[in-house]
Amino acid sequence: MCRTPAHPSSAPEGTAAFADLSVPEKELSPADLSRRRFLLNSGLLGIGALGVTALGGLAARPAAATGAGGSRALHWMAGDHHVHTQYSYDGMYTIEQQAAGALRHGLDWLVITDHGHAAHEKFAVEATYADIVVSRAKHPELLLWQGLEWNVPGGEHATVFFDGARDEIQLLRAFERLFDSRINGTGASSPENEAKALEALAWLDTALRTGAASSALFLINHVMRRGRYAPRDLRAYRDKAPDIAVGMEGAPGAQNEPRARGDFNNTADASSWPGWRPEHYPTYGGFDSMTGILGGMWDSLLAEGKGWWITANSDGHFYNGDTTVEPSRPADWYDQHGRYPDPVDGGVPQRHADFWPGQFSRTVVGATSRSYGAVMEAIKAGRSWVSMGGLVDGLHVDAHAPGNAPATLGGRLSVRRGDTVTLTVSVDLAGRPNANEEIPRLARLDLIRGAITGPAADPDVFTAPDVQVVESFTPRGRGRVAEFHYRFRDVREPFYFRLRGTDGRRSAPGGMEPAADTGRNESPWSDLWCYTNPVFVELT
Fold this sequence. Notes:
Elements: H1 30-42, E1 75-83, H2 95-104, E2 109-112, H3 118-138, E3 143-151, E4 157-163, H4 168-179, H5 181-184, H6 191-209, E5 215-220, H7 231-240, E6 245-251, H8 289-292, H9 297-302, E7 309-312, E8 324-325, H10 333-337, E9 344-345, E10 361-367, H11 372-381, E11 384-388, E12 392-400, E13 412-415, E14 421-429, E15 444-451, E16 467-473, E17 481-488, E18 495-502, E19 529-532, E20 535-539
Parallel strand pairs: 1-2, 2-3, 5-6, 6-7, 13-20
Antiparallel strand pairs: 1-10, 3-4, 4-5, 8-9, 10-11, 11-19, 12-14, 14-17, 15-16, 15-18, 18-19, 18-20
Helix pairs in contact: 3-4, 6-7
């Protein structure tokens, strides 16, 4: 635990003691002293007299403005923030293979997120970056990041990545060394380890506030796979660093895993939060139960009126139907090198749990420009929707109210009591075969409304009773574009709304909700869904 110094500190509020040079070394614990000396040796603790901040770096750029043109004024760009390579202890593909695969399946942006690991931190950080630089030069049309799948202390996994940092590689390595639970042995569920995760987010927040990085994002991966995250954890992450901890995978990768979609266990284990019930462990239509259960965990977070966004991605390790295989190697190869040898073509299609980035799942963000900073800002702002199996090609959502510019996904309308909010939705229906050689058909688009009730009195609440489907839209005719309209009349209380769509081929018995994926996963292609992030409506 970091002690508060008895003397004044010049470091920003929330800076850990080991990063605060005004705290004498004699006041540091042995662990914090080791952390400080590591950062000093990495060049990440600068000299205040020279104007270098506690983490070193450039002045942060202000967030991009959304503009007043509504959804049509944005660049809608598809991407994936959760992909593994040969630099991950459980990966295989080269960075170039992943980049080329993402482009082949129509993506505009991609984040490489190899697992935190002692060998990765020791050998792979610079080597990964060198390969990324080569792929960036070869494919300038793809925005390609180097990130990390962080082993969260006291939790499971999350994507972490930076933009615009002077010492991006040092930042990534320092973060992994200091806070990755696999490296530091902090993976067990305990108050101390959970506090360590919050300390890590505070460290990232300091990197932003001091200018070491222009942007940083944290997105929780496969949230309910083992049920390790309690509701209070999600709220604590969000509130500790609201510009960094912005959301979670609404739908996990591994959608083709035959045991269960997403490779979710469907049962609790010793590390699971005891408040979760059996119905929380499977996916629903391929979506994490936190998203797929109407009025569940996601809605309980949105009911507080704070942003918490969902994504979908591949979690790509090994791709179904690909002929690429791993070459033979000694068992300790990764530990000795921090990477695996380049894979080879085995000539025989393989059965795997994963799809290529963009082949099945994608996150589509509304960016103000085709740039790294704009994509990260769009993710942070919640201007995004997610889709499976090419269910829809495009989605434009705009909400209008008197005296307001149109608001799109992730946005906010501030209206007078009694005003009407008009919603316009335009869907570009699928017009080409997906990777399963079918043209998907959107059978129904549900409009979901939830009340904004304010901060939760109980941080472990995971339900929001005042959530319902207020309208279901059905595309008519043979046109490629379906347009829908809805009016929220005489607004008296703050609320949010979001959308979800389905191909209609599978639902819960006797209703319209997505069915729990509790049996063997024969084919995810027969149960396709799309979801949007919400729009908030507030009263002046």
